[in-house]
């Protein structure tokens, strides 16, 4: 198979925010997964578990969305600040009906972001919260001093305001966030965002709640009525192999399910194009960012776990789903400003799973780690037609390729979906020859459902890769079956 990396044909800059994250108060995502509390015997920094923190620091997470998800629209931030013993608990109605202690609130979240050196993305409560409540939250976080909210923050131990970069106005307002029509939400969006004030030189990027997968009418109405007041418009799409009632197992699947999952992951490209086309009609200069602030696989919960906790294992299949999504986001990077995988720890397509004091890194984690080199690089056009991967009369491209470059390096990632055979792929690349230094990493396994467990945490992990050759103007790579490969070409 042959193709060309068009070294001078830049699609756009890959925003690092495409590698963003999302963590909701859901199941064991925050509590256990990130926050163990200041009295825990598990090693921690001010209540944040050290092993998870270190793992996430290595990913250089650019942005973290919080506190939900559906949870955001019943979260009342004021109950989550101040003395721990006085924080008011609440029922987490969406996720298992558990009692939320509010031990992890604004200060703890901001401390986490500081430790991760990432930007905070706060999702405001529109479904059951008031305009005043959101305005107060922004004032609490960002006003220097001398107002009731800023002085309350100072009294609670934070002298200087935080830098707040992203604010979302509601979550899934068409569903768990209030079951609204787009027309009604567009009006509410305009009203709520008005009072998201920018104090003391802060610049807040305001994100309107966007559509559920195929609902292009939602995008149309929002763009028609509220485009001038937004910086970003979101989109949610989950890769569910089966139906919402019977999604399929995270680990027990056959090749049919492998195929359908990857086919559904490719669907993201059509959605980005469909919603992007509508955004283009109202915003031809692409000022407004598409914010895919929930994406990833969603399977049946692991047997024996609380179904409301959305805890699922993560296999090589998830690694391929993640890599395919990044390739799609790169191809559309001139419109997509941010994407946030759902979710970071112990929930859905997680980076990290924990069990008491144990932690493991998932295959998805390894893709995020391998792919971080694409962040803030120029995405290049890749001209190539993949042979099909066929199953029961249906076809999807067997190989996906994405290339990016910075001043001294080019990174080419490959996603190979066929679980049975190797595929050789040669790419014409102007300027390389036998002397060019080329290195590689591969993530693969001998089974489609290979995954890491607490007893065997390193079964699936990246390894050095050498199955490539360079000759004048051409790079040839022998892709192992079901693999993700990252090649670095030294242009210096
Ligand atoms: O990520 C889990 C849930 O999926 C989120 O809370 C919600 O926004 C979406 O439906």
UniProtKB/TrEMBL annotation:
GO BP term (any one): polysaccharide catabolic process
Xref: InterPro entries: Alpha-L-AF_C, ASD1_cat, GH, Glyco_hydro_b
EC number(s) on file: 3.2.1.55
Domain of life: Bacteria
One Gene Ontology term of the molecular function aspect: alpha-L-arabinofuranosidase activity
Pathway membership, UniProt: Glycan metabolism
Keywords from the named record: Carbohydrate metabolism, Glycosidase, Hydrolase
Residue ranges constituting the Alpha-L-arabinofuranosidase C-terminal domain according to the UniProt record: 293-483
Transmembrane segments: none
Presence of keyword Repeat: no
Coiled-coil stretches noted in the UniProt entry, renumbered to this chain: none
Primary enzyme class: hydrolase
Matching SUPFAM superfamilies: (Trans)glycosidases (SSF51445), Glycosyl hydrolase domain (SSF51011)
Reactions catalysed, as given in the entry: Hydrolysis of terminal non-reducing alpha-L-arabinofuranoside residues in alpha-L-arabinosides
Family, per entry: Belongs to the glycosyl hydrolase 51 family.
Quaternary data: Homohexamer; trimer of dimers.
Protein name as it appears in the record: non-reducing end alpha-L-arabinofuranosidase
